[in-house]
Amino acid sequence: MKKVMVFPSSFGKFSKGPEQLLTDAGIAFTKFFKPGMTEDEVIEKLQGYDGVILGLEPMTERVMRSCPQLKVVSRFGVGMDNVDLAAAKELGIKVYNTPGANANAVADYTFGMMLDLARSISIASRDVKRGEWNKYTGYPVYGATLGIIGLGAIGKGMARRAKGFDMRVMAYDVYWDEAFIAEYGIEKASLEEIYAQADFITLHTALTEETRDMISMAQFKQMKPTAFLLNCARGGLVNEADLAQALRTGEIAGAGIDAFCEEPPTGSPLLELDSVIAAPHIAGSSIDGIDTMARMSAENCIKGLREANERG
């Protein structure tokens, strides 16, 4: 019987269907969750396992070489920056992810964060609960300009929602879905055009060596002093020290961050600023999104183990 380790704490949380898929396929699974696992801890837990359903745990070359029985890595999510894909290919380990599974959940959350930033909703709620009655003047969202960097499944979700608010939508991507941009009247734009013109800038791109620190002080200086930045994608896309400085000096008006370079972001200067909404990497955590990711990651694991068995 094949054995699979399941690291994400929310796998099977709202439905036992994904667990039943593994059981029906004749796969024995073990669930274990610990935040911030090290390479050594992952190696220890994966001894004797044929597959892993992986959250944000490190899947480095060292981990994979230290787990000789491992044949399948099934990411519970989209981002692959914690997986050494080159090493997996060299070692013959099949790697999967779940693109689009939580796209609507992330788009809902990001749009909600945008509204919160514009109208100080959570800050005002905090004040009232403290017994304070402070008035905040908000920024318009309806009819404003949204700049989307990365027009994949989540970026498209943001565009659809923005059109309901009669927003001007500018987008940057490397590969274009021409039918989509025509249907929704999206303006193709350079990064520089988005920085200069957008009232809200939202990031929906992968973290690579090319995109790391893609938003730093040089980019903040190009933005409007009334602009807001949203990062519900990956920590590392934004230089957080530069963001804190840009907010203090008024280069931009505010930021919503759901993905930090270090999680949790203990001691981050961003946490001291009222102009920042900070969230614990939960944009994709909706019941439907989690269930879909769990099902897809289980199906991917089953598929990978069957193929590995056929290869012998």
Corresponding CATH superfamily of the largest domain? NAD(P)-binding Rossmann-like Domain
How much of the sequence lies in strands comes to: 15-25%
Q: What is the H/E string? A: EHEHEHEHEHHEHEHEHEHEHEEH
**Could you name the CATH topology of the largest domain?**
Rossmann fold
Helix content: 25-40%
Query: Mean pLDDT score, rounded?
Result: 96
Question: Biggest sheet, strands in spatial order?
Answer: 8-7-6-9-10-11-12
What is the radius of gyration computed over CA atoms, rounded to a whole number of angstroms? 21 Å
CATH class category of the largest domain? Alpha Beta
Summed up, the helix count is 12
Oligomer: single chain
Poorly predicted tracts of residues:
none
Named at the architecture level, the CATH assignment of the largest domain is 3-Layer(aba) Sandwich
- Report the span from N to C terminus: 15 Å
Shape descriptor:
elongated
Largest sheet: 7 strands, parallel
Could you say which structural class the secondary elements and strand pairing correspond to? alpha/beta
Number of domains: 2
Q: Total number of β-strand segments?
A: 12
